[in-house]
Amino acid sequence: MSDPIRYTRQQKADAIAIMLEEHYPEVPIPLDHTDSYTLLIAVLLSAQCTDARVNKVTPFLFAKADNPTDMIELSVAEIKAIIRPCGLSPKKSQAIYDLSHILLNEHNGEVPQSFEALEALPGVGHKTASVVMAQAFGVPAFPVDTHIHRLGYRWTLTTGKNVVKTEKDLKKLFPKEIWNRLHLQMIFFGREHCPARGHDPKICPICSKYGRKSLVK
Questions:
Q1: Is-catalytic flag, 145?
Q2: Which CATH number among 1.10.268.10, 3.30.420.40, 1.10.1670.10, 1.20.1560.10 corresponds to the domain 9-28+142-214?
Q3: Of 61, 95, 144, 201, which has the fewest CB atoms closer than 10 Å, so is most exposed?
Q4: Integer Cα distance of 45 and 124 in angstroms
């Protein structure tokens, strides 16, 4: 058996970007929402929860409150009861209630369009802020959750030390103008071809060709 073809990390990134575009020319946003506020809430709820489950829960929540003014009319207990299936409901419900107050008191009821302001909100970390900035406001960002982190490591695009390092590595490898689109393409590809469990790298379109053994040392 011949040795696998070796690629540099940049060569891999370039080829993977083309492959992802071929597989997913259309990339809908996985979380159902109608505006920046409902997207913010949906992304917050998605922490340690699947997008599919979030999409089953948010219609009930947004039917009662799809804006910060209506949300603060609910009690934390009422929010908690609705979002319980998403997990971590005590923390998430309090965060939703508190951030809605902050949006009204400090941002005229609008979701702020800056990383700094978003990350200052309760329950909103860098990944959540990145999703909102990218998908609600079109600002180039590269949200890295555990799934993107796993794919970046499997495809040897990063050393995989932590999500912060992975984000930096991916941003260096891919042009800024495709970050928002590529992030979604990676999510869809990971779900279909490169899952966390039961993954066979021999049949994965990317791992089979650009797996760890193919990286130039």
A1: yes
A2: 1.10.1670.10
A3: 201
A4: 10
Structure tokens at 152: 């970046």
User: Which pLDDT score, from 0 to 100, does residue 160 have?
Assistant: 77
Q: Which of 12, 92, 145, 169 is catalytic?
A: 145
pTM (two decimals) = 0.90
For domain 36-135, which CATH number applies: 3.40.50.170, 3.40.50.2000, 1.20.1740.10, 1.10.340.30? 1.10.340.30
What is the average pLDDT across 25-43? Answer: 96
Per the CB < 8 A criterion, the answer to whether 67 and 55 are in contact is no
Give per-residue pLDDT as tens, 153-181: 999 999 878 999 999 999 999 999 999 99
Q: What is the structure's pLDDT at 2?
A: 47
Given the residues 12, 80, 127, 169, select the one marked as catalytic. Answer: 127
